[in-house]
Design goal:
Layout lengths: L4 E3 L2 H8 L11 E3 L3 H7 L3 H4 L6 H6 L3 E3 L1 H6 L7 H7 L14 H20 L8 H26 L12 E4 L12 E3 H16 L16 H15 L2 H14 L27 E3 L14 E3 L1 H4 L8 H5 E4 L2 E4 L14 E2 H14 L3 H12 L16 H15 L5 H9 L9 E5 L2 E5 L12 H7 L7
Antiparallel strand pairs: 1-2, 3-7, 4-5, 6-10, 8-9, 11-12
Helix pairs in contact: 2-7, 7-8, 8-9, 9-10, 10-11, 10-14, 11-14, 14-15, 14-16
Protein backbone atom coordinates (compact mmCIF):
# COMPACT_ATOMS: atom_id res chain seq x y z
CA UNK A 1 0.00 0.00 0.00
CA UNK A 2 1.34 3.45 -0.91
CA UNK A 3 2.23 5.84 1.86
CA UNK A 4 -0.66 7.89 3.25
CA UNK A 5 -0.28 10.80 5.61
CA UNK A 6 -2.86 11.03 8.38
CA UNK A 7 -3.03 14.65 9.47
CA UNK A 8 -5.48 17.38 10.30
CA UNK A 9 -5.82 19.14 6.95
CA UNK A 10 -6.86 22.69 6.33
CA UNK A 11 -9.46 21.68 3.76
CA UNK A 12 -11.75 20.04 6.29
CA UNK A 13 -11.24 22.78 8.89
CA UNK A 14 -12.25 25.33 6.28
CA UNK A 15 -15.16 23.14 5.37
CA UNK A 16 -16.46 23.42 8.90
CA UNK A 17 -15.72 27.09 9.57
CA UNK A 18 -17.04 28.32 6.22
CA UNK A 19 -20.12 26.12 6.38
CA UNK A 20 -19.20 23.68 3.65
CA UNK A 21 -22.65 22.19 3.41
CA UNK A 22 -22.80 21.28 7.10
CA UNK A 23 -19.94 18.76 6.93
CA UNK A 24 -18.09 18.53 10.24
CA UNK A 25 -14.29 18.21 10.22
CA UNK A 26 -12.47 14.96 10.83
CA UNK A 27 -9.49 14.88 13.19
CA UNK A 28 -7.66 12.45 10.97
CA UNK A 29 -8.19 12.66 7.25
CA UNK A 30 -6.40 10.92 4.41
CA UNK A 31 -4.26 13.26 2.32
CA UNK A 32 -4.00 11.50 -1.05
CA UNK A 33 -0.68 11.49 -2.89
CA UNK A 34 -0.79 8.57 -5.31
CA UNK A 35 -3.45 7.06 -7.56
CA UNK A 36 -4.16 4.32 -5.02
CA UNK A 37 -4.48 6.91 -2.27
CA UNK A 38 -7.32 8.49 -4.22
CA UNK A 39 -8.81 5.06 -4.71
CA UNK A 40 -8.74 4.45 -0.96
CA UNK A 41 -10.78 7.61 -0.38
CA UNK A 42 -13.59 5.88 -2.25
CA UNK A 43 -13.14 2.52 -0.57
CA UNK A 44 -14.48 3.37 2.88
CA UNK A 45 -17.58 1.21 3.36
CA UNK A 46 -18.61 2.92 6.59
CA UNK A 47 -18.73 6.36 4.98
CA UNK A 48 -19.84 5.47 1.47
CA UNK A 49 -21.84 2.29 2.01
CA UNK A 50 -23.27 2.13 5.51
CA UNK A 51 -24.47 5.68 6.08
CA UNK A 52 -27.10 5.98 3.37
CA UNK A 53 -28.46 9.56 3.43
CA UNK A 54 -32.15 8.71 3.13
CA UNK A 55 -33.14 8.01 6.73
CA UNK A 56 -35.91 10.63 6.68
CA UNK A 57 -37.60 8.87 3.78
CA UNK A 58 -37.64 5.65 5.79
CA UNK A 59 -38.99 7.42 8.87
CA UNK A 60 -41.72 9.16 6.86
CA UNK A 61 -42.87 6.05 5.00
CA UNK A 62 -46.28 4.51 5.73
CA UNK A 63 -44.94 0.98 5.21
CA UNK A 64 -44.81 0.69 9.01
CA UNK A 65 -46.35 2.21 12.10
CA UNK A 66 -45.56 2.57 15.79
CA UNK A 67 -47.87 1.56 18.58
CA UNK A 68 -48.86 4.45 20.82
CA UNK A 69 -46.68 3.32 23.72
CA UNK A 70 -43.66 2.99 21.45
CA UNK A 71 -44.26 6.41 19.94
CA UNK A 72 -44.49 7.95 23.41
CA UNK A 73 -41.20 6.32 24.39
CA UNK A 74 -39.22 7.81 21.49
CA UNK A 75 -36.37 10.04 22.71
CA UNK A 76 -37.10 13.74 22.98
CA UNK A 77 -33.55 14.94 23.63
CA UNK A 78 -32.45 17.52 21.08
CA UNK A 79 -30.08 15.28 19.04
CA UNK A 80 -32.79 12.65 18.45
CA UNK A 81 -36.05 14.60 18.56
CA UNK A 82 -36.08 14.86 14.75
CA UNK A 83 -37.03 11.17 14.53
CA UNK A 84 -40.27 11.73 16.43
CA UNK A 85 -40.98 14.93 14.51
CA UNK A 86 -40.36 13.31 11.13
CA UNK A 87 -42.62 10.36 11.94
CA UNK A 88 -45.62 12.72 11.80
CA UNK A 89 -44.17 14.96 9.06
CA UNK A 90 -43.97 18.07 11.26
CA UNK A 91 -43.14 21.42 9.67
CA UNK A 92 -39.98 21.70 11.75
CA UNK A 93 -38.07 18.55 12.57
CA UNK A 94 -34.50 19.63 13.37
CA UNK A 95 -33.29 21.37 16.54
CA UNK A 96 -29.77 22.09 15.28
CA UNK A 97 -28.26 19.72 17.83
CA UNK A 98 -28.28 16.63 15.59
CA UNK A 99 -25.05 14.65 15.48
CA UNK A 100 -25.66 13.55 11.90
CA UNK A 101 -28.22 14.27 9.21
CA UNK A 102 -28.90 12.96 5.73
CA UNK A 103 -27.56 16.28 4.45
CA UNK A 104 -24.22 16.02 6.26
CA UNK A 105 -23.76 12.32 5.46
CA UNK A 106 -24.30 12.85 1.74
CA UNK A 107 -22.12 15.94 1.48
CA UNK A 108 -19.29 14.23 3.34
CA UNK A 109 -19.31 11.61 0.58
CA UNK A 110 -19.63 14.29 -2.11
CA UNK A 111 -16.64 16.17 -0.66
CA UNK A 112 -14.55 13.01 -0.97
CA UNK A 113 -15.53 12.77 -4.62
CA UNK A 114 -14.51 16.35 -5.30
CA UNK A 115 -11.16 15.80 -3.59
CA UNK A 116 -10.60 12.76 -5.81
CA UNK A 117 -11.71 14.44 -9.04
CA UNK A 118 -9.66 17.58 -8.35
CA UNK A 119 -6.62 15.50 -7.47
CA UNK A 120 -6.84 13.20 -10.48
CA UNK A 121 -6.72 16.20 -12.82
CA UNK A 122 -3.27 17.09 -11.46
CA UNK A 123 -1.89 13.56 -11.25
CA UNK A 124 0.60 12.12 -13.72
CA UNK A 125 -0.50 8.57 -14.50
CA UNK A 126 1.70 5.91 -16.04
CA UNK A 127 0.47 3.99 -19.06
CA UNK A 128 0.02 0.78 -17.07
CA UNK A 129 -2.24 2.62 -14.58
CA UNK A 130 -4.67 4.11 -17.06
CA UNK A 131 -7.38 1.51 -16.46
CA UNK A 132 -7.17 1.99 -12.73
CA UNK A 133 -7.31 5.76 -13.26
CA UNK A 134 -10.53 5.32 -15.23
CA UNK A 135 -12.03 3.11 -12.52
CA UNK A 136 -11.31 5.64 -9.78
CA UNK A 137 -12.56 8.62 -11.76
CA UNK A 138 -15.68 6.74 -12.80
CA UNK A 139 -16.29 5.70 -9.20
CA UNK A 140 -16.04 9.31 -7.99
CA UNK A 141 -18.50 10.46 -10.64
CA UNK A 142 -20.96 7.69 -9.78
CA UNK A 143 -20.77 8.19 -6.01
CA UNK A 144 -21.24 11.94 -6.42
CA UNK A 145 -24.29 11.40 -8.65
CA UNK A 146 -25.73 8.77 -6.30
CA UNK A 147 -25.49 11.10 -3.32
CA UNK A 148 -26.98 14.01 -5.26
CA UNK A 149 -29.83 11.72 -6.27
CA UNK A 150 -30.46 10.66 -2.68
CA UNK A 151 -30.32 14.25 -1.45
CA UNK A 152 -32.79 15.30 -4.15
CA UNK A 153 -35.30 12.67 -2.96
CA UNK A 154 -34.97 13.97 0.60
CA UNK A 155 -34.57 17.74 0.33
CA UNK A 156 -35.96 18.75 -3.08
CA UNK A 157 -39.46 18.75 -4.45
CA UNK A 158 -40.29 15.94 -6.85
CA UNK A 159 -39.10 16.43 -10.43
CA UNK A 160 -41.80 18.00 -12.60
CA UNK A 161 -40.79 19.02 -16.14
CA UNK A 162 -43.16 21.99 -15.90
CA UNK A 163 -41.46 23.47 -12.83
CA UNK A 164 -37.99 21.87 -12.63
CA UNK A 165 -36.27 24.93 -14.08
CA UNK A 166 -37.74 27.10 -11.31
CA UNK A 167 -37.86 24.92 -8.20
CA UNK A 168 -34.95 24.87 -5.76
CA UNK A 169 -32.49 22.01 -6.13
CA UNK A 170 -29.19 21.40 -4.34
CA UNK A 171 -25.99 23.41 -3.85
CA UNK A 172 -23.73 22.02 -6.58
CA UNK A 173 -20.00 22.34 -5.91
CA UNK A 174 -17.66 22.45 -8.90
CA UNK A 175 -14.48 21.89 -6.87
CA UNK A 176 -13.47 20.75 -3.38
CA UNK A 177 -12.69 24.37 -2.41
CA UNK A 178 -14.93 25.01 0.62
CA UNK A 179 -14.41 28.79 0.55
CA UNK A 180 -16.54 29.25 -2.56
CA UNK A 181 -19.95 30.69 -1.74
CA UNK A 182 -22.66 28.96 -3.75
CA UNK A 183 -26.43 28.83 -3.56
CA UNK A 184 -28.97 26.21 -4.46
CA UNK A 185 -29.26 25.32 -8.13
CA UNK A 186 -32.60 24.44 -9.69
CA UNK A 187 -34.08 20.96 -9.69
CA UNK A 188 -33.43 20.77 -13.45
CA UNK A 189 -29.77 21.70 -12.99
CA UNK A 190 -29.43 19.20 -10.14
CA UNK A 191 -30.74 16.32 -12.24
CA UNK A 192 -28.65 17.51 -15.18
CA UNK A 193 -25.45 17.17 -13.13
CA UNK A 194 -26.44 13.65 -12.05
CA UNK A 195 -27.05 12.50 -15.61
CA UNK A 196 -23.87 14.15 -16.90
CA UNK A 197 -21.77 12.48 -14.19
CA UNK A 198 -23.31 9.09 -14.88
CA UNK A 199 -22.95 9.20 -18.65
CA UNK A 200 -19.28 10.04 -18.21
CA UNK A 201 -18.86 7.29 -15.60
CA UNK A 202 -20.44 4.81 -17.99
CA UNK A 203 -17.45 5.21 -20.31
CA UNK A 204 -14.94 4.66 -17.51
CA UNK A 205 -16.23 1.83 -15.33
CA UNK A 206 -16.08 -1.94 -15.88
CA UNK A 207 -19.38 -3.70 -16.71
CA UNK A 208 -19.38 -5.81 -13.52
CA UNK A 209 -17.67 -5.77 -10.14
CA UNK A 210 -14.00 -6.78 -10.32
CA UNK A 211 -12.97 -6.10 -6.71
CA UNK A 212 -14.22 -7.58 -3.44
CA UNK A 213 -15.96 -4.51 -2.02
CA UNK A 214 -19.74 -4.08 -2.37
CA UNK A 215 -19.38 -0.32 -2.91
CA UNK A 216 -17.52 -0.67 -6.20
CA UNK A 217 -19.43 1.20 -8.92
CA UNK A 218 -19.90 -0.56 -12.25
CA UNK A 219 -21.68 0.02 -15.54
CA UNK A 220 -24.55 -2.05 -14.16
CA UNK A 221 -24.90 0.29 -11.19
CA UNK A 222 -24.72 3.34 -13.48
CA UNK A 223 -27.53 1.98 -15.66
CA UNK A 224 -29.60 1.16 -12.57
CA UNK A 225 -29.22 4.68 -11.17
CA UNK A 226 -29.96 6.28 -14.54
CA UNK A 227 -33.12 4.19 -14.65
CA UNK A 228 -34.17 5.57 -11.25
CA UNK A 229 -33.49 9.12 -12.39
CA UNK A 230 -35.46 8.78 -15.61
CA UNK A 231 -38.35 7.15 -13.71
CA UNK A 232 -38.47 10.22 -11.46
CA UNK A 233 -38.45 12.46 -14.53
CA UNK A 234 -41.19 10.47 -16.24
CA UNK A 235 -38.89 9.69 -19.17
CA UNK A 236 -39.89 6.05 -19.49
CA UNK A 237 -38.25 5.50 -22.86
CA UNK A 238 -34.80 6.28 -21.44
CA UNK A 239 -35.62 4.45 -18.21
CA UNK A 240 -36.35 1.32 -20.24
CA UNK A 241 -33.20 1.77 -22.33
CA UNK A 242 -30.90 1.82 -19.31
CA UNK A 243 -32.76 -0.92 -17.45
CA UNK A 244 -32.40 -3.19 -20.48
CA UNK A 245 -28.71 -2.31 -20.76
CA UNK A 246 -28.24 -3.17 -17.07
CA UNK A 247 -29.86 -6.59 -17.41
CA UNK A 248 -28.04 -7.35 -20.64
CA UNK A 249 -24.78 -7.24 -18.68
CA UNK A 250 -26.18 -9.70 -16.14
CA UNK A 251 -29.83 -10.42 -15.43
CA UNK A 252 -29.35 -13.15 -12.82
CA UNK A 253 -31.88 -13.19 -9.98
CA UNK A 254 -31.85 -14.98 -6.65
CA UNK A 255 -34.30 -17.86 -6.46
CA UNK A 256 -36.06 -17.32 -3.15
CA UNK A 257 -37.00 -21.01 -3.09
CA UNK A 258 -33.33 -21.69 -2.30
CA UNK A 259 -33.41 -19.52 0.84
CA UNK A 260 -34.34 -20.48 4.39
CA UNK A 261 -37.64 -18.79 5.20
CA UNK A 262 -37.25 -19.67 8.88
CA UNK A 263 -33.87 -17.98 9.27
CA UNK A 264 -33.73 -15.07 11.71
CA UNK A 265 -31.90 -13.07 9.03
CA UNK A 266 -32.79 -13.99 5.49
CA UNK A 267 -29.87 -12.40 3.63
CA UNK A 268 -26.08 -12.15 4.22
CA UNK A 269 -24.53 -9.38 6.31
CA UNK A 270 -23.55 -6.16 4.48
CA UNK A 271 -24.72 -7.73 1.21
CA UNK A 272 -21.67 -9.95 0.72
CA UNK A 273 -22.81 -13.03 -1.15
CA UNK A 274 -26.02 -11.45 -2.45
CA UNK A 275 -25.55 -11.48 -6.22
CA UNK A 276 -28.52 -9.18 -6.88
CA UNK A 277 -26.87 -6.16 -5.23
CA UNK A 278 -25.39 -3.76 -7.78
CA UNK A 279 -24.21 -1.05 -5.38
CA UNK A 280 -24.44 -1.39 -1.62
CA UNK A 281 -25.98 1.26 0.62
CA UNK A 282 -27.68 0.89 3.97
CA UNK A 283 -28.97 3.46 6.40
CA UNK A 284 -27.80 3.94 9.97
CA UNK A 285 -29.94 2.41 12.69
CA UNK A 286 -32.31 4.76 14.51
CA UNK A 287 -34.76 4.35 17.37
CA UNK A 288 -37.88 4.93 15.33
CA UNK A 289 -37.46 2.15 12.78
CA UNK A 290 -35.59 -0.47 14.78
CA UNK A 291 -37.10 -3.91 14.37
CA UNK A 292 -38.29 -4.11 17.98
CA UNK A 293 -40.30 -0.89 17.60
CA UNK A 294 -41.78 -0.93 14.12
CA UNK A 295 -44.91 -2.81 13.03
CA UNK A 296 -45.45 -3.72 9.39
CA UNK A 297 -48.50 -2.02 7.89
CA UNK A 298 -51.39 -4.45 7.37
CA UNK A 299 -52.04 -2.88 3.97
CA UNK A 300 -48.63 -4.07 2.81
CA UNK A 301 -48.88 -7.48 4.48
CA UNK A 302 -52.17 -8.12 2.69
CA UNK A 303 -50.41 -7.77 -0.68
CA UNK A 304 -48.62 -11.11 -0.20
CA UNK A 305 -50.76 -14.06 -1.30
CA UNK A 306 -50.45 -17.76 -0.52
CA UNK A 307 -47.25 -19.23 -1.94
CA UNK A 308 -45.41 -15.92 -2.01
CA UNK A 309 -42.02 -16.82 -0.54
CA UNK A 310 -41.33 -13.21 0.37
CA UNK A 311 -43.85 -13.16 3.20
CA UNK A 312 -41.82 -15.52 5.39
CA UNK A 313 -38.46 -14.28 4.15
CA UNK A 314 -39.31 -10.64 4.81
CA UNK A 315 -41.42 -10.78 7.96
CA UNK A 316 -41.60 -12.53 11.29
CA UNK A 317 -43.68 -12.41 14.45
CA UNK A 318 -41.94 -10.84 17.43
CA UNK A 319 -43.60 -9.92 20.71
CA UNK A 320 -47.06 -9.92 19.20
CA UNK A 321 -46.04 -7.69 16.29
CA UNK A 322 -45.20 -8.46 12.69
CA UNK A 323 -41.72 -7.03 12.06
CA UNK A 324 -39.41 -6.78 9.07
CA UNK A 325 -36.33 -9.01 8.74
CA UNK A 326 -35.80 -9.39 4.98
CA UNK A 327 -33.38 -6.59 4.25
CA UNK A 328 -30.58 -7.05 1.73
CA UNK A 329 -28.18 -5.53 4.27
CA UNK A 330 -28.63 -8.59 6.48
CA UNK A 331 -28.69 -6.24 9.46
CA UNK A 332 -31.68 -5.25 11.55
CA UNK A 333 -32.16 -1.49 11.72
CA UNK A 334 -29.44 -0.76 9.16
CA UNK A 335 -31.87 -1.35 6.32
CA UNK A 336 -30.68 -1.76 2.72
CA UNK A 337 -31.12 1.36 0.58
CA UNK A 338 -28.85 0.65 -2.39
CA UNK A 339 -29.28 -0.56 -5.94
CA UNK A 340 -30.26 -4.14 -6.72
CA UNK A 341 -31.19 -6.09 -9.82
CA UNK A 342 -34.72 -6.97 -8.72
CA UNK A 343 -35.62 -3.27 -8.67
CA UNK A 344 -34.28 -2.93 -12.22
CA UNK A 345 -36.65 -5.68 -13.37
CA UNK A 346 -39.60 -3.79 -11.91
CA UNK A 347 -38.41 -0.44 -13.25
CA UNK A 348 -38.16 -2.01 -16.68
CA UNK A 349 -41.58 -3.64 -16.45
CA UNK A 350 -43.18 -0.33 -15.48
CA UNK A 351 -41.29 1.71 -18.06
CA UNK A 352 -42.22 -0.72 -20.84
CA UNK A 353 -45.94 -0.71 -20.08
CA UNK A 354 -45.84 3.08 -19.89
CA UNK A 355 -44.55 3.20 -23.47
CA UNK A 356 -47.06 0.64 -24.68
CA UNK A 357 -44.95 -2.54 -24.76
CA UNK A 358 -47.30 -4.88 -22.94
CA UNK A 359 -45.81 -8.28 -23.79
CA UNK A 360 -42.26 -7.18 -23.01
CA UNK A 361 -43.45 -5.69 -19.72
CA UNK A 362 -45.14 -8.94 -18.69
CA UNK A 363 -41.98 -10.87 -19.56
CA UNK A 364 -39.79 -8.96 -17.11
CA UNK A 365 -42.50 -8.86 -14.44
CA UNK A 366 -43.02 -12.62 -14.60
CA UNK A 367 -39.29 -13.31 -14.81
CA UNK A 368 -39.02 -11.77 -11.35
CA UNK A 369 -42.20 -13.32 -9.94
CA UNK A 370 -41.13 -16.82 -11.01
CA UNK A 371 -38.22 -16.48 -8.56
CA UNK A 372 -40.45 -15.25 -5.73
CA UNK A 373 -43.50 -17.55 -5.80
CA UNK A 374 -43.43 -21.20 -4.80
CA UNK A 375 -43.27 -23.30 -7.95
CA UNK A 376 -46.28 -25.38 -6.91
CA UNK A 377 -48.57 -22.35 -7.05
CA UNK A 378 -46.80 -20.00 -9.45
CA UNK A 379 -48.91 -18.80 -12.37
CA UNK A 380 -47.60 -16.09 -14.72
CA UNK A 381 -49.60 -12.90 -14.47
CA UNK A 382 -51.62 -12.48 -17.64
CA UNK A 383 -53.68 -9.58 -18.95
CA UNK A 384 -54.15 -7.63 -22.15
CA UNK A 385 -55.26 -4.54 -20.24
CA UNK A 386 -52.40 -2.04 -19.95
CA UNK A 387 -53.96 -0.24 -17.00
CA UNK A 388 -54.48 -3.48 -15.09
CA UNK A 389 -50.88 -4.48 -15.71
CA UNK A 390 -49.56 -1.10 -14.56
CA UNK A 391 -51.53 -1.32 -11.31
CA UNK A 392 -50.24 -4.85 -10.72
CA UNK A 393 -46.63 -3.74 -11.30
CA UNK A 394 -47.02 -0.89 -8.81
CA UNK A 395 -48.31 -3.37 -6.21
CA UNK A 396 -45.43 -5.67 -7.05
CA UNK A 397 -43.04 -2.81 -6.26
CA UNK A 398 -44.56 -2.62 -2.79
CA UNK A 399 -44.13 -6.37 -2.31
CA UNK A 400 -40.59 -6.70 -3.66
CA UNK A 401 -39.05 -3.43 -2.51
CA UNK A 402 -40.51 -3.26 0.98
CA UNK A 403 -38.60 -0.83 3.23
CA UNK A 404 -35.75 0.04 0.86
CA UNK A 405 -36.58 3.74 0.70
CA UNK A 406 -38.08 3.43 -2.77
CA UNK A 407 -41.70 3.61 -1.58
CA UNK A 408 -41.28 7.25 -0.53
CA UNK A 409 -39.81 8.02 -3.96
CA UNK A 410 -42.66 6.17 -5.66
CA UNK A 411 -45.31 8.04 -3.69
CA UNK A 412 -43.73 11.37 -4.62
CA UNK A 413 -43.55 10.66 -8.34
CA UNK A 414 -46.93 8.91 -8.57
CA UNK A 415 -48.65 11.78 -6.77
CA UNK A 416 -48.16 13.73 -9.99
CA UNK A 417 -50.79 11.42 -11.52
CA UNK A 418 -54.27 11.89 -10.10
CA UNK A 419 -55.21 8.22 -10.40
CA UNK A 420 -52.28 7.14 -8.22
CA UNK A 421 -52.32 9.86 -5.59
CA UNK A 422 -51.85 8.62 -2.04
CA UNK A 423 -52.42 10.30 1.32
CA UNK A 424 -50.09 9.07 4.06
CA UNK A 425 -51.81 8.67 7.44
CA UNK A 426 -50.63 8.18 11.02
CA UNK A 427 -52.94 7.56 13.98
CA UNK A 428 -51.57 8.24 17.46
CA UNK A 429 -54.18 7.89 20.18
CA UNK A 430 -57.19 9.77 18.87
CA UNK A 431 -55.13 12.14 16.77
CA UNK A 432 -54.83 11.70 13.01
CA UNK A 433 -51.85 13.05 11.05
CA UNK A 434 -51.96 13.26 7.24
CA UNK A 435 -49.49 13.99 4.50
CA UNK A 436 -51.55 14.97 1.48
CA UNK A 437 -50.50 14.31 -2.13
CA UNK A 438 -48.03 16.89 -3.47
CA UNK A 439 -47.68 18.50 -0.06
CA UNK A 440 -44.53 20.65 0.26
CA UNK A 441 -43.70 18.47 3.26
CA UNK A 442 -42.57 15.72 0.88
CA UNK A 443 -39.37 17.81 0.77
CA UNK A 444 -37.81 17.73 4.23
CA UNK A 445 -36.33 20.90 5.79
CA UNK A 446 -32.61 21.50 5.32
CA UNK A 447 -30.71 21.24 8.65
CA UNK A 448 -30.34 24.58 10.50
CA UNK A 449 -26.52 24.42 10.51
CA UNK A 450 -26.45 24.24 6.73
CA UNK A 451 -28.93 27.11 6.40
CA UNK A 452 -26.98 29.27 8.83
CA UNK A 453 -23.48 28.52 7.52
CA UNK A 454 -24.27 28.29 3.83
CA UNK A 455 -26.95 30.94 3.62
CA UNK A 456 -29.25 28.62 1.65
CA UNK A 457 -32.93 29.25 1.09
CA UNK A 458 -34.97 26.93 3.29
CA UNK A 459 -37.65 24.67 1.87
CA UNK A 460 -41.21 25.93 2.25
CA UNK A 461 -43.14 23.54 4.45
Amino acid sequence: MNKIFLVLIVLFLQACSSGFLDVKPSKQTIVPVTLEDYGMLLDNENVLGRSGPVTLNFIGSDEYYLKDAIYSSLPTQAPNLFQKQAYTWEKEIYTGAELRTDWSEAYEAILRCYVVLDGLEKLSVAADQQERFKEIKGAALFIRANNYYNLAQVYCEVYDPQTAAKKLGLPLRKTADPTLNIQRATVAETYGVMVSDLLEALELLPPKRVHVTMIEPTQQAVHALLTRIYMQQGNYKLAAKHAEACLQIDGTLLDYADLDTDAAVAFPLWGYGNSEILFYNSIVSMYVYQQARMNVSEEFLDLYKDGDLRKKLFFTLSGGSVVFKGTYSGREGGWFSGLARDEVYLNLAEALIRIGKLEESKFYLNSLRSKRIHKDVYIPFETNDQEELLHFILDERKRELYFRGTHWEDVRRLNKEGRFQRTLVRKIGEEIYKLEPNSPRFAWPIPPDAIRNGGYTQNER
